[in-house]
Amino acid sequence: MNIKLKNKNIFFNIIKDIVIFISFFLIMQILVILFKSYLNKHNSLFSIIIYLIMCLYLFLIYKKNLINDLKDFKKNYKKYISKSFKIFIICLFLMYISNIIITQFTGDIATNESLNRELVKYKLLYSVIEMCFLAPFYEEILFRLNFKNLFKNKIIFSIITGLFFGSMHLLVAKSSIELLHIIPYSIMGFALSYIFYDTDNIFTSITYHFFNNFGSILLLMLAGSI
């Protein structure tokens, strides 16, 4: 009886997590359609509004988890950040090295990266708000917090959600050879998943996600790309 109940709970959690994930993008697409005329005239402003609405949507779903994690993070952020620093730096190094090698092999950067660079170049303020604050929040909830209860093993959780995170960044890929870029994206996805699972606090991975994205924008600025 206990085994049946356990299997039923696992099945329910899988369905629930999938529904939340799909509903996020479905609602976002509906909002894009509703705001279509405004997006054409005030693209940046209404894009931010849409992302804010989606962040609120996830907050309402995981309100209790997020409030508890925030309280815990305020008390223990130094311990969590220092505990996760080594794995973040190692994966950051591997991500950049693999990205350089793949770029040399394919002759171009990933389409997702190209779009982000264009965004940073022409809409710096919007890109900082979206990439450094909003994206880390909703992506960490969607890819990490949303699926954590499905896994009892930290490594398996980190690998699977890391690969899922990496693959979602390639939905705009223009060629099959570009799929090689799943490696650097998944390495960072692995790091963030590992950090979240290891500290059991979503704001730790949100913080490192912020540092990664902000660092990327800063590097572009220092390199004179914008």
Textual characterization of the structure:
- The protein has 226 residues and is mainly alpha-helical.
- Helix content is 84%, strand content 0%.
- The chain has 9 helices and no strands.
- Helix 7 packs across helix 8.
- The longest helix has 44 residues.
- It starts with a helix and ends with a helix.
- 27% of the residues are buried.
What's the layout of helices and strands?
Elements: H1 2-34, H2 36-41, H3 43-61, H4 63-106, H5 111-122, H6 124-145, H7 154-168, H8 182-199, H9 202-222
Helix pairs in contact: 1-3, 3-6, 4-8, 4-9, 5-6, 6-8, 6-9, 7-8, 8-9
Characteristics:
226 residues; mainly alpha; 9 helices; globular
Q: Give me the secondary-structure category.
A: mainly alpha
> Which overall shape is indicated by the principal axes computed on the Cα atoms?
globular
Distance between the termini: 62 Å
Q: Count the helices. How many?
A: 9
**Major sheet size, sense and barrel closure:** none
Share in helix: over 70%
Quaternary structure state of the chains depicted: single chain
- How many whole angstroms does the radius of gyration measure? 18 Å
Helix and strand succession? HHHHHHHHH
Average pLDDT, to the nearest integer? 91
Low-confidence region ranges: none
What share of the residues does DSSP label as strand, in percent? under 5%
Count of DSSP E strands?
0
